[in-house]
Recover the amino acids of this structure.
């Protein structure tokens, strides 16, 4: 889901919850990063409903992890894996 300027806080929270297992795929990581960035842009000090809460500082910490995964995945897709080198003789 792409969040836009017309998205609501509820949309962002739904996307956040739908992608909590972000380590399972690059798509989930990118979607969660988008939700985190949206929530940070709204500058909530704390979001709370019933027994769940998310703080600004926890979002900021998660943002760094997600950016690393998303950026490494994007650049890693263009690189070949190097497994082992062996001298064939000179």
């Amino acid at each position: 889901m792409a969040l836009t300027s017309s998205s609501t806080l509820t949309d962002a929270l739904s996307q956040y919850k739908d992608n909590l297992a972000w380590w399972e795929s690059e798509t989930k990581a990118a979607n969660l990063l988008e939700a985190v960035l949206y929530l940070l842009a709204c500058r909530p000090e704390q979001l709370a409903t019933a027994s769940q809460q998310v703080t600004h500082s926890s979002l900021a910490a998660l943002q760094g992890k997600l950016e690393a995964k998303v950026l490494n995945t994007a650049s890693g897709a263009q690189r070949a894996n190097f497994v082992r080198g062996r001298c064939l003789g000179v």
